[in-house]
From TrEMBL:
Domain of life from the UniProt record: Bacteria
Designated name of the protein: Permease
A Pfam family per the record: DUF3000
Origin species: Bifidobacterium olomucense
Length: 123
């Protein structure tokens, strides 16, 4: 989502703010103490070149669930990432705010989290 305020917001440092959310399953073995940092750093690699320095902020939540009763089955894990950043807005040399570029950087990160379909089809 791309937010716009008519007057620059002090906490954004701009009139513009990008806000994004993603939720995805994880292999249960990926649910460890290092996972949130690894996911954050991976996302940062895709977004940081499009953001004003120092404005990237967010959370990574990793969950593990075990179902019981009628919902019983294999344990499963998931990941949620919430992030926001102030996009480059034309104040620096060659830095122009381009909504499509912002969306594409987030989409590229999401695509990077999805393994090849063949990995998911193995029985």
């Amino acid at each position: 989502m791309l937010l716009y305020a008519r007057k620059p917001r002090e906490e954004w440092g701009s009139c513009w703010r990008c806000v994004a959310f993603a939720k995805s399953p994880l292999d249960v073995v990926e649910n460890d103490a290092l996972t949130p940092s690894m996911i954050w750093e991976s996302m940062r690699d895709f977004v940081i070149g499009r953001a004003e320095p120092g404005t990237l902020a967010g959370t990574v939540t990793v969950t593990s669930n075990t179902a019981f009763g009628n919902l019983s089955g294999e344990p499963h894990a998931g990941c949620e990432i919430r992030v926001s950043w102030t996009p480059l807005d034309g104040t620096g040399l060659g830095a122009t705010m381009d909504a499509g570029t912002q969306v594409n950087s987030w989409a590229a990160f999401i695509q990077s989290t999805v393994g090849p379909q063949e990995e998911h089809d193995v029985e």
